[in-house]
Amino acid sequence: MTENDERARNESGEYVQEHTEEAVLEVMKPLEPYMTSEIADELGWSRRSAYNVLTRLHESDEIRKKKPEARRVIWIRPA
User: Fold this and answer.
1) Distance between the two ends of the chain, CA-based, in angstroms?
2) Which helix (H) or strand (E) holds 10?
3) At what angle are helices 47-59 and 36-43 packed, to 10 degrees?
4) Rounded distance between C-alpha atoms, residue 27 and residue 76, angstroms
5) Which of 8, 44, 52, 67 is the most buried (most CB within 10 A)?
6) Rounded to the nearest 5 degrees, what angle is found at the Cα of 31, between the Cα atoms of 26 and 35?
């Protein structure tokens, strides 16, 4: 750990998850299609972090996922 590491920790000293499902849902308007990069840019996250959270939301049926091309995913928050 570096001296400048300001990430939040819980009572057990473990890092608190900074990339939350709630943050993603707050920026997604219902029925609006989003690409992973749009969510990542909006939240200031890496694309990988955004993709991981979006995948968790999809797996828990909070959002829909469409894959129109091999390397393109579109995420949609239901109304």
Assistant:
1) 42
2) none
3) 110
4) 12
5) 52
6) 70
For residue 35, the one-letter residue type is M
The first and second tokens of residue 59, run together, are: 């797996």
Tell me the DSSP string of 35-58.
EHHHHHHHHT--HHHHHHHHHHHH
Is 18 within 8 Å of 49 (Cβ atoms)? no
Residue-level pLDDT, tens digit, the chain, 79 residues: 445 556 566 677 655 557 899 999 999 999 999 999 999 999 999 999 999 999 999 999 999 999 999 889 999 999 9
- Dihedral pair phi/psi, residue 4, rounded to 5°: -90, 5
Q: What angle do CA 53, 56, 61 make, to 5 degrees?
A: 130
Q: How far apart are CA 66 and CA 13, in angstroms?
A: 38
Contact between 76 and 31 under an 8 Å Cβ cutoff? The reply is yes
